[in-house]
Fold each of these.
Amino acid sequence: MKNSLIFALVMMIAGAAGYGVQTWLHKDKIAKATLSIPGPDFSARDINDKIRNIKEWRGKVVLLNFWATWCGPCIKEIPELIQLQKTYGAHGLQVVGMAVDDKQAVSQFAAQHGMNYPILIGGSDAAELSKRYGNKLGVLPFSAFINREGVIKLITQGAIKPEKAKLILAQLGIHS
C-alpha cells in the first residue's frame, strides 16, 4: 500500500512537471515565431483557375495556410480553419489555403470538405514559397499570420490549435 502511494505521488509530480515543461516550451516557440517582416508578394491560380494575388486581401488579417491533401495533420486542421473563417470572417479575417498539391486532388478535397475560404494551387512551387514565408524546415501544415498591412507577424509549424489561433487573432485585432 505504501509503495502504491509513493508511486502515485511520484507519477503526479512527474505529470505536473511534464505539463509545466510543455507549457514553457510552447510559450517559447510562440515567442521565437513572432516576426515583423513584409510578406512576400505572390500570385497563384485558385481552384477555379482565377489568378489571385496575396495583396487582394490587404486590409484584412490573413491566415495563410500551406497544406496538402496527403498530409494527415493538414486534414485534421481543415475543420478548424473552416470554423475560424466562419467565426471571424465578418470581423476581418481571411483564411487562405496554399496547396502543395495538384489541382484535381485539391478541387475534389475542397468540395468534399466544404472549404469556405480561397484555395490556391501552388504545386511544388508552394514549398519554396512557404520557405520565403519562414518555413525553414519545409513542415506541413505551416501557417503565417499576416496583419492588415501585409506584414508577417507570426508563423506556426504544424497544425494550429483553435485556442492558440484565437489568441493570435486577438493580438492582431480580430475578435468575435
Note: The chain has five helices and eight strands.
Amino acid sequence: MKIAFQTLGCKLNYAETSTYERGFQDSGVEVVDYRDNPDVILVNTCSVTQHSDNKCRNIIRKCHRVAPGARIVVAGCYASLRREEILAIEGVQKVFGATEKGLVVPETLSLMGIEDIPLSKEQYKADPFMAFSSGERTRSFLKVQDGCDNMCAYCTVPLARGRSRSPLIEEVIPQALQIARMGIREVVLTGVNTGDFGRKNGESFLDLLKRLNDIDGIQRYRISSIEPNLLSDDIIDWIASGTKFQPHFHIPLQSGDDEILRKVGRRYDTELFSSRIDRVRQKMGDDVFFGIDVIVGLPGEDEESFQRTYSFLEKRIRPAFIHIFPYSKRPGTRAYLMKDQIQDRIKTERVEKLEELCSILNKEFILSNKGRKALVLWESTNKDGMMSGYTGNYIRVEAPYAEEKVGTIEEVTI
C-alpha cells in the first residue's frame, strides 16, 4: 500500500504531517509522491486566509485529477471549519477536524484495509496530538501546544484548532529525546500560542525550556513564535544567562496602532511590546534577530493608523524581518462584521510599503553583523556545489559543500 502527502500552512502542520508519516511507515505503508499512483493521499490543510481556503480546494481537486484512483483524506484547519464543503469534493473519503488528529493514522489504515496498528488506538487519542517533524537532518519542529483562548477579532484559529491546551512536560521530554536520538541538532518549539504552555496544567513555559535545555545531543533551540505579553522578564533573563536557546525571537505585533490593537482584542499595547524588545536587547545585545508579524488593512486602519505602524517599526523596533499579511475577512469572526473594511487595493499598497521597509531593515541587520564571528549549523542541501546554514541569530550563510560538515556547528566569520 502507498500513501502520499500534501501539506499547506504553518510549521505546526508540517510537524503533524511528519508524525502521521512515521505512523504509516511503521505499519508498512510506503510513502510516495502524489503523482506515483498512491492508494491514499492525505492533504493537511490551512485556513488562515480566504486564499488559503482556495488553495486547499485547488490542491484537493488537483490530487483527484492526477491520481483519480486514490482515496483522499483531509485534515487540518480547513477541514475543521469546512467539513461538509470538503466532503462534497470528488475523491474525498474522510475528513478529520481539530479534535480528531489522533484518529488520522488508525482510521486511514483501516480505510486501506490494514488493521494491524503498531501502537494502540489509546496512544493516538492524546489531546493535544503530540507531533514533531523529522524530514530534515539538522532541524526538527516540536509541537508543545495547540489551540488558543485569545479570540482575537480577525482570527479563526480558536474555531479551527480549539481552546489552548498543552501536554505535561513529562510527555514532551520523550519526544525531544527521540529527536536527539535521530541525530537532529536543532529543535524549534512550535504551537499556536506557544508561550501559553502549561498554564492549565500548573506548569509554565519556562519550566519546559529549562528541562529541554538539559537534554544531551540537542545543541540549539528556537521558539517559533511567542506573544509579547507572554515573553516575561524571567524567560528573557534565563535565555540570556547562557543557554541553548538562540538569540532569535519571532513575536506577533499585528499593528503598531494602539486603537487597532484594542479593537481587535490583542492583549498588549505598543508600550508593552517595545518594552519586551528593549529587555531582550538589554540582556542579549543588539545582534538579536527579531521577526515581527504585521497584518495590514485590519478594519478601521486608516492612513494615520497605518503610518503609526510603519513609524513604530521603522523608528522604534527596527526588526531584522517583517512577516506581512494582508487582512482577510474570515466568516465566524467579529472582524468579519466590522464596518470600515479596507479596500484590497489599499492593502496591496501597504503590503508593498512594508516589504520595502523589511528589505531595508534586513540588509541593515546583516551588514551590522558583517565581520562578526558566529556559529553556523550546516544543513544537508547541496545546491550548485554550495551548502548553507543559519547562525544563532538566523543569518543565512553559504560555503562550499562538504558532506562531513552536514549537521555540525562551525564557527565562521560573517
Note: The longest strand covers residues 245-254.
Amino acid sequence: MEYATIMFLVNAGMIIHALRTGRFWPWFWVILMLPGIGALAYVVMELAPEFMGSRQGQRAQSQIACAVDPKRRYRELADNLAILDTIANRVALARECLELEKYHEALTILSSVVAHPQGDEPTFFIDKARAEAGIRKYAEALATLGELKRKWPAYQSSEAQLLYACLLEALGRDREAETEYRTLAPSYPGVEPRVRLARALLRRGQREEAKTLAQNVVTELRRSPRHVVRAQSEWLNAAEQIARS
C-alpha cells in the first residue's frame, strides 16, 4: 500500500475518532492541515494521556485550540462577562482585547471599570492608558497616567513609566521622553527603553551615541540565554538596524 494511502487512512481514522469523542475542534483542522504530524499530535496529546488518566492532554488541547483560533479566549471571556458582570470579568476581557489590539472595545470596557467604585486600582488605569494609546489618543492616555499618579503618588510601575515615556515621544516631547528612557533603562526588565532611546537619539542626529547604545544591546542579548533572545527578538532586530545605520 502506498505511503499516501496510509497517511490518508490514518488521518481519516483520527478525524473520525475526534468527531465521535467530542474532540472535533480543533483537531479536525490540525490533522487536516498537518498530515501525519497532526495525527501523531492527536495520539500523543489526547489518546495517550486518556489511557494514563492524565489531564495533560486537556491542557495541550487548550494550547493548540488557542494557536488555531486566537480569538477563542476572547469569546470565552465575553461569554463569562455576559453570564456574570463583575469587575474581574470586565478587566479580563479588556486585557484580552488589548492583546488582540481591539483598542476601542478595551477602552469602552475600561472606562466603565475605572468609573466603578470597585475599579479603583492602579493597574486598571494603566490598561486604560494603553487602550487610549492604541487608538492614538496620546494626550488622553497621558492624562490617565496623570490621574493614576495623583491617586497613588507612591505607586511604582515600570510598565507605566515606559508607557509614559512613549506617550511623551508620540506627542513630540522628545527631550522629556529621552530623560524618561534614560531613567528607566537601568531597572527595566528588558531592553526596550534603551532601544527606544537609541531611536530617539538617532532621529536627533546623535548617531554615535545611538549606535553605541544599540551595539551594547546587541552584544548583551547575543550573550543571553535563548529564551531571553526569543522574548526580546523585536528589540534585538531594531537594535541591530540602528547599530548598522
Note: The first helix runs from residue 3 to 20.
Amino acid sequence: MRKLYIWQWRIGLILVGLIGLTGCLGSPTSNQRVTVTLTDPSIQSSLTAFNVNTPYQFVVTNKGSVVHEFMIMPPPSYTQHMSQTDLNAAALVMIPSLQAKETKEINFTFTHGNSMKYSTGMDMRGFEFASHLPGEYEKGMKLTISIIPGQ
C-alpha cells in the first residue's frame, strides 16, 4: 500500500511540473493587433515595423468622410509605373472599399515568400500602407512600413 502511495505522489509531482511548464510556454500564438486609421488624406498606424512569421490582425477604420481603400504594398520603386490593375495584383493585402466611419479587419502574416519577391537582398524596408484610389496616393494616403526578417 505504501509503495502505491509513493508512486501516486511521484506521478502527481510530474503532472504538476508538466502543467507548470506548459503555463510558462504560454498559449498558442494569437494575432498581434494593429490599429490603422484612414483619414482625409492620411494613414496612421499603431505599428510600422512588422516581424516576418508573426501573425497580425489589422483593424482598419475609415475616420474620413469619403471612401478609402487599404493596401499593403511593395516598395514604391517597384510600383511606380504600374497600372491600377497591376497594383491590385501586387498588393500583399487589400481592402478595396471602406465607407466613411466603417471598420474592417484582416489577418495577415508577412513571410519571406510574400515579401521578398519585391525586395533585393534582405532589405524589406519601404513597403507601404496605401490607398491608390484616384488622387489619394498623391495627396498623402500612404505610410512607410518595414518588414523585419526573421533570424
Note: The first helix runs from residue 2 to 25.
